[in-house]
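User: Show me an example of a complex going from sequences to structure tokens.

Assistant: Sure. Here are the input components:
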Amino acid sequence: MKNYSRQREAILEVLRSTDTHPTASWIYERVREKIPNISLGTVYRNLTVLSENGDILTINVGDGQERYDGNTAAHLHLRCTGCGEIYDAFLKSDPFRDLISEEGFIPEAAVYVVRGICKNCK
Amino acid sequence: MKNYSRQREAILEVLRSTDTHPTASWIYERVREKIPNISLGTVYRNLTVLSENGDILTINVGDGQERYDGNTAAHLHLRCTGCGEIYDAFLKSDPFRDLISEEGFIPEAAVYVVRGICKNCK
DNA sequence: AATAAAATTAGTAATCATTACTGATTTGAG
DNA sequence: CTCAAATCAGTAATGATTACTAATTTTATT
């Protein structure tokens, strides 16, 4: 296991302590409670590194900014176009695994996003 | 069927005549061959409208710009981190349909992106 | 056909999330 | 301890996308 910097560990901890899908700015504000002078650029850089390392997921739901997810297990993101909420829907197994391997493709990270209307908004 | 403007029809036609996943700029250049003075803003606006209407898909594979897909059938997008190519993998049926309906969610569009290494790059 | 209202456009300016850059600081290996 | 590599805070720059405006086109109504 690699040794991450204090800043990187703090970012990862914030992300793992929520089940929402926060933006870089939201994470930045939270980490500042622990490391007040951390730079926003540091947050962005580490989110990129963490995502490339497979520690987190980078999710784009089409609302103008990237979101990040501390849960890297394959799951659906259901974004309601009414309220903007993002719901998780977990899978017992990744139904695409066989299809992906048929293509000779070695997967690193999977992001599934479904746009629609949630039960509260219909 | 709705009557779309000449510009909107041309954008849709360009998008349906390729099996790649072009960016707005690429589409803009292609449409300019037919409508030389079309504005880039018009391309963006109509891509948004077409996506909201369900005529096309907006896909973010994490390379810094949105991409668009004229094929709205549920399918995987396999993006190789080696060469950047985006491969399609088609499904016989959407394996998430039951799960989505269990959540009481009414889906409008589904975008599935898998990052990894393609067989040519490994 | 004439008229008014609504939708769409071309062109340009503005936005803002993200990235790039800088010199300083920290970390780890030998 | 020493050097090189990694990372940092702070700030400036980037560039894809959106917003704006006045003009044009389309649609509906009489």
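The lines above are the inputs; the final block is the predicted structure for all four components together. Chain A touches chain B at residues 58, 60, 62, 76, 78, 80-81, 87, 89, 91, 95-96, 99-100, 102-119, 122 (CB under 8 Å).
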